[in-house]
């Protein structure tokens, strides 16, 4: 399956989809899936725009509303996460994930789904230590503080994600902390010299995300946020046990805001030719490591080794924002376990399904989902994993496609997303906001969130129409 990955979109969907079509024509291939790494800006109308934490001059409708109202349709299945420049009210409506528009699916504040058998997990938002341990307490209308805290990632979601088995792909807006040490750090600093202090102090990136990267060991990890293309390779040591510790955090903070216009062409960057479609390098060779051939003359005697397993590896790639001559899109090939086949020159039909393990985690951790500032204590790892195993039995017994809506053979725990969630316009499009277009909107309880909760037999605590707080 050919998968395109895009960095920060900032509402420029028309340009992104046109760039994708240009790549397909230039390289004579068909892209089957598009992943977008935050700052998506799913702004439905002018009132949504009042819920986005950006300077006033950057409050623009963008292109998304055309896809929301049906004026345009996304030409390829698009999966997105949230960043720190979002209409946070809309993404909160779909806390557990859902269709932002036809053919555009939001992973939720945290989530994992499958596309033709490829497991794609993700975490929305950015790290801020002051809010990390809090519950999801923010309510409309947002003030200056809650308009920003609402997109700060919570420990609740990091703990849930840490219980996944290894996904194929992980999406985050933030970079994992210290990821720059696994790539060309000096090259990064030549392009972005103002990163130097954060790199030296360990403040570049998110501590809990590096914990997740080390715990989950995905094959690919894609990020955005810092408006620069950066590639790294993280080697993982073989674990002696089948269990991983929950990720821990450390004191360093991540810069809260990356200004939208803070990185217009650096002198060095503007001279660098764009590489719009380079492939991820998957070599496991560490250039700073002495090879066995170079070492042989110094080794007197080596113990006999029948087999030495190769360490697992995560390919990390951060991408820029959508602007001319910027490296904001990459295309990769990912093997699929699906039986779906297509003729040459045709786009495959992506089959989007819920991930059974994530559904089990969602059920297991639902009692700890707080919609107040105070967050209840979490179970220890062993208890949490036992809870997930118990809920997996429930998922396999109770989650499946409705026979009336599907010709597929029912599989335990497998349900296509469209069988449960269908896109609904929960708010009006632009031009229908009335006289209050410059005010924040009311809360809309999204039917897709209700459907997700009903599928899992859990309470929809994101129904704030009656201020239903946990």
Q: Could you write a compact summary of the structure shown?
A:
The chain is of the alpha/beta class and about 475 residues long. It has helices spanning about 15-25, 45-50, 65-70, 90-95, 130, 145-150, 155-160, 185-190, 195-200, 205-215, 265-270, 290-295, 355-365, 380-400, 415-420, 445-455, and strands spanning about 1-5, 35, 80, 100, 105, 110-115, 120-125, 170, 220-225, 230-235, 310-320, 330-335, 350-355. It is globular.
What is the topological layout?
Blueprint: E1 2-6, H1 13-27, E2 33-36, H2 46-49, H3 64-69, E3 78-80, H4 88-93, E4 98-101, E5 104-106, E6 110-115, E7 118-123, H5 129-132, H6 146-149, H7 155-162, E8 169-172, H8 185-191, H9 196-201, H10 207-216, E9 220-223, E10 230-236, H11 267-271, H12 292-295, E11 312-318, E12 329-333, E13 352-354, H13 356-365, H14 381-398, H15 417-420, H16 447-456
Parallel strand pairs: 1-2, 2-3, 3-5, 7-8, 8-9, 9-11
Antiparallel strand pairs: 1-12, 4-5, 6-7, 6-13, 10-11
